[in-house]
Amino acid sequence: MGNTLLLPEIAELLRKKKFDFLREFISEMHEKEAADYLSSLSPSDIWKILNLFDAHKRADVFSYMDMDVQVKMISGGLKRHVLDLLTPMSTDDRADLFQHLDKHVADKLLTYLPSRERADVLHLTSYEEGTAGALMSSDFVALHENDTVASAIKTIRKIAPGKETVYYTYILNDSGVLLGFLSLRKLILSKPQVLVREIMKTDVIVVAATDDQEKASNLINDYDLIAIPVVNSDNKMLGIITYDDAIDIIREEQTEDMERLMAISGPVEEKPYLDIGILTHFRKRVVWVVILGFFGILTGMIIQGFQKTLETLIVLTFYMPLLNAAGGNTGSQSATVVLRSLALDQLKPGDIFRVLKKEFVISALLALCLGIITFLRVHLLTAPDQIGAEFTLLSVATVIALALSIQVVWSTLFGAIIPIIAVKVKIDPAVFSSPALSTIVDMGGVVIYFSIAKMILGI
Amino acid sequence: MGNTLLLPEIAELLRKKKFDFLREFISEMHEKEAADYLSSLSPSDIWKILNLFDAHKRADVFSYMDMDVQVKMISGGLKRHVLDLLTPMSTDDRADLFQHLDKHVADKLLTYLPSRERADVLHLTSYEEGTAGALMSSDFVALHENDTVASAIKTIRKIAPGKETVYYTYILNDSGVLLGFLSLRKLILSKPQVLVREIMKTDVIVVAATDDQEKASNLINDYDLIAIPVVNSDNKMLGIITYDDAIDIIREEQTEDMERLMAISGPVEEKPYLDIGILTHFRKRVVWVVILGFFGILTGMIIQGFQKTLETLIVLTFYMPLLNAAGGNTGSQSATVVLRSLALDQLKPGDIFRVLKKEFVISALLALCLGIITFLRVHLLTAPDQIGAEFTLLSVATVIALALSIQVVWSTLFGAIIPIIAVKVKIDPAVFSSPALSTIVDMGGVVIYFSIAKMILGI
């Protein structure tokens, strides 16, 4: 999404080739603002303006642009400009960009990259999408265990501009094993001649490169970290994930959870709604709409099996929407609450019986409310000619209210248990959507409804 | 949620009064871990252990405890201990705690607090819940415009332990107006004798104290900030909000959005699922279950109005679940996508016609898919004796498939438009839940279904 407010001015300055003024004008902006403005220009104009800046500013502004703009610029830029841009980029942003380039563009660029950068890209892109390794940056400040505070601060001064964060520094031994960490706060508070290993914190919270990215973001959140180190199985330090990446993960996972919950399939799109093609939108929705459509047809076939019951007592049809709504709503509610608690690590699969006990009582109360309302509604407001002479209003009202109450209890328990079982068998609990849940509890509800009618009324 | 793994050991150490060993043992833990362990003990045991630590460690561990444990401890602690604990706490955590105390406990404590801390609590608690002001901390590093880099670093060294973050410093003039900011990174890279106002960034991203807290968290996220300054209408600096608070807000707002979306009412509970009372769970769910139950009954009454149609062609009943599922699912999908895009600022209410155009095409494609499947299913798989001699299979299949298609299109458009209208009339778009949507489109669907049957089949 480009910002367009000052675009005419920028285009005018470009046309008149007032480059000094342009550099001045954009230098004063935050990199993100600059990126927003530039994104609306053509790739060649963006290149013209980017090349006015020094290497770091250029890379920073570029990194704030949307991925599709970045890809377009790299794919169409001059080799020399592209390499000048890629070298100073944050290692995680650069690796991410390579993941999005056409394979042959990426391969060609890799051969031109300096060997250190090439190795870095190859390493960072080797981790599976969604792992901590795929997200990490290799730009962290590493200190040696024998460094003093004075030499540590000197190191930081020297390398600060190229590093993701200088606020946390990591102390490694000769083999690169992580021994401890020190915050810049602690460093500037300590005496210059002290050794860093004497004041470092050794109880470091880490993630493994193969861990899920969500684990990293949860730890950053729980421990209020600015960055978390990523290590391999030998505790060698590979990189860091910073708090701003954690925020992005939390947002992305949340969008994914919501989409799953609403039966929208596939990976979360990075592009905004209006930029996503109609066919992509369609593809993400049609899968579940059709699958659940078949379930709807199946429920209809169950009703068909009770055709005689239905023809004998047509009034039963009038309460099918209520039954359907009550089951879907209570099931979705319990599923949402349990799902969210699992996502926030407030619940473990082992709590299943405590959850079921709790949900049973809650659903019994809900069933009681709805059951009484329904019983009164049927009993007091049904015209006697609506039901055949062979039935009493009391028995019909009892059947409908009882079926509804059972439906509420079973739907609530079903909604609560499904996410927990999903976690136990290690599938994403959010995969089971609220529409799927509603459709399935509706199917069960129809069976309950007509079975009870058959039993009590003998039809 | 207390951590219980090492609890027997801790209890044993307490019983044997091995306080030195206990202090050693817990000092090595991260404050959050220590808080998790201690939370499972009785308040008096927690007090015994907390009082082993120095003021800052004690306050840090305490701040990581759940709010209900904090409240219990403050309400039951000795006045001397309580005051020793409250004084060094982070100002935002302390203000938050006061918001949760019983009014008379809070008032009594306030009178005992040193005047500086009392004024701070009174100021921070004066902002309305949900605003940036209510969330901010007053612990920030303020520099004067005439300070040099050397004196700035000296200031930071002196006050660092008590400040929320020292990584960003703010430069104020004599009246406390915010002039610019400097990162600690920049400070340690600059020459000692330079004035801070010469190197500070003047293009500071700020929020007003009365702005919504979500605005602050969005800015922190968009600009990758560690902290954002909070100012009043005269641009005087009042406090900061840090990135870890932004993460908490994002999570809380997400839980709220999800609960709204699933028809769970009321404010988000801070306590984990298992700690929330059954009646609270019940209250949060019953409202919508009953309201939507009434809508379900209303839908039944509409069906009742078409009783003759239904009795003439009972096969129509068998496709009601399909109609219901298709409407609810497609409506929920479009609502979710639009809602999420609004929340991420990817859509503005002004885009309403572009959204409708897009959703119309998507829904037409979905309707086509489902319509064809349904037409074939009815036409090919319905036994001729299921329908009266006065109708042809072709006409019945057309009615059902057509009604379904219209239902899909109108549900999708309805789902997309509702969140946008909500934003336009300035109510929370997530207030309109997916179950409410399903129930309402179902009502419309029933009308569409039977009206089309009436028109085409003349019943």
Task: Describe the 3D structure.
The structure is a homodimer of 459-residue chains. The first copy, chain A, is mainly α and 459 residues long. Helices cover 63% and strands 6% of the residues of chain A. Chain A has 22 helices and six strands. Chain A has helices at residues 7-15, 19-27, 31-39, 43-50, 55-64, 67-76, 79-86, 91-100, 103-112, 115-124, 132-135, 149-159, 184-189, 196-199, 213-222, 243-261, 278-305, 307-312, 320-343, 352-381, 393-424, 434-457, and strands at 141-144, 168-172, 178-183, 207-208, 227-231, 237-242. In chain A, strands 1-2-3 form a three-stranded mixed beta sheet. A three-stranded mixed beta sheet of chain A has the order 4-5-6. In chain A, β2 (168-172) and β3 (178-183) form a beta hairpin. In chain A, α3 crosses α5 and α19 (320-343) runs antiparallel to α20 (352-381). The longest helix of chain A is centred in the C-terminal third of the chain and has 32 residues, at 393-424. The first copy, chain A, is elongated and about 95 Å long. The N and C termini of chain A lie far apart (62 Å). The mean pLDDT of chain A is 88. The interface between A and B is large, with 111 and 110 residues.
Concise account of the structure shown:
Two copies of one chain form a homodimer. Chain A is mostly helical and 459 residues long.
